[in-house]
Amino acid sequence: MAVSVVMPALELAQETGKVLVWIKKEGDRVTKGEPLLEIETDKVSFELEAQADGILAGVRSHAGDVVPVGQIIAWLVAPGEQPPAESDTASPNLHKSMAEQARPITARAPEKAAEGGPRISPKARRMAQELGVDISRVIGTGPGGTISGEDIQAAAAKPAPAESLSTLARLMAERTTQSWTTVPHFFLARDVDAGALNVAREQLGKDTFTHTDFLIALVARTLLDHPKMNASWTGSAIRLNPAVNISLAIAVPEGVVGAVIPNAATLAIGEIATQRKDLAERAKSGRLRPTDIAGGTFTISNLGMFGVDAFSAIITPPQAAVLAVGRISDRVVAVNGQPAVRPIMTITLSSDHRVVDGAQAAAFLNDLAAALEQPLKKLGQS
Fold first, then answer.
1. For domain 107-163, which architecture applies?
2. pLDDT, tens digit (0-9, with 9 covering 90-100), for 111-122
3. For a designed S-S bond to 273, which of 21, 42, 172, 213 qualifies (C-beta 3.0 to 4.6 A apart)?
4. What are the φ/ψ torsions at residue 338 (nearest 5 degrees)?
């Protein structure tokens, strides 16, 4: 029986995917698990694998085509079998977990992107992803017109038209606008004495752990006592999420991605630091996997390293909240009725009023402040 190849949905808000290159061509015999083509979403590029053995037939989407999620783009058929009659979407029983079909793009020899398309070296393709260069607009100067790393660098150095936006930047603009105009935000701010946090980082290893690692660990553990802050809005009801999956906002050249540390409340701070570092490095080099950006239940956005004192962040639906973290700076405050200089950090909580009310958000922020002021105790290391 023919098996459909469909444009997969790798995240909740994804509506389309772009065909980058067919690795297999019409008429090729393929085995289950072999990569068929490369696809790009707004955040990642990946290889879509064959769901079954068969012959690739009925290819209807080509390099550069932007295809709606769920639409059939080809078929896998038995020898002598013809693709089914025209249909836009696959039958439900033909769908498998689409995220499981995707894997990170691996290096291959220079290849033709599609009939009439460009040839590009693996190194140049990686550079194009990192620098945000559209390879369809690059003229290759290598053998046979192959696009080289030098060609990508030259293209990146050219000023882009003022109106041009990368796919990620465009999607960010659309989604933040949608969130800001449809989600009833409210904001709570709190100044926290970060003296104990600084001491804890020194004790455990300043070169090993960042303040963000402590924030992830402490926020995740505090969320266990405040499940509605870790909930999601489904459109008509509140869903309590069974796991605490912290989404960390990471700046990349095209904008910001939310890389997820799953089950963060169960991880030791050393495990969190390792995962955070790996995600940050792969995000900045354009190598995040689809699973790296899926399933977040609460977001942390830390701009303290940029010298920002305080800010308010926009919620990422369907999450119920996001924590914005400013820098730690010396300020004169009252301690036991006397002026003193203390390292102070301002944290601002943005919450969805459909999911939590002001008292619930305030209780969470109060417990989080207490955890930040006694971090080793909260982490069970005091």
1. Irregular (4.10)
2. 444 444 577 876
3. 213
4. -120, 145
Domain with CATH 4.10.320.10 in the chain: 107-163
Q: Where do runs of H (alpha helix) occur along 226-348?
A: 269-284
The 3-state DSSP class for residue 109 equals coil
d(CA 266, CA 276): 15
Q: Calculate ∠ Cα 18-20-24, nearest 5°.
A: 120
pLDDT tens column, 329-367: 999 999 999 999 999 999 999 999 999 999 999 999 999
Q: How much helix, strand and coil, in percent to the nearest 5, is found in the chain? A: 30, 30, 40
Q: What is the CATH number of domain 1-105?
A: 2.40.50.100
Helix (H, G, I), strand (E, B) or coil at 323: strand
**Bridge partners, residue 205, by sequence:** none
Known catalytic residues are 353, 357
> pTM of the entire structure?
0.62
Alpha-carbon distance 114 to 63, whole Å?
6
> Which whole-number Å values give the CA distances from 278 to 43, 54, 84, 228, 273, in the listed order?
17, 37, 44, 29, 9
Write the DSSP symbol of residue 147.
Answer: B
Determine the 3-state secondary structure of 364 from DSSP: helix
The CATH number of the structural domain formed by 170-378 is 3.30.559.10
CB-count exposure of residue 376 (10 Å: 0-12, 13-18, 19+): middle
Which pair of tokens denotes residue 230? 């870790």
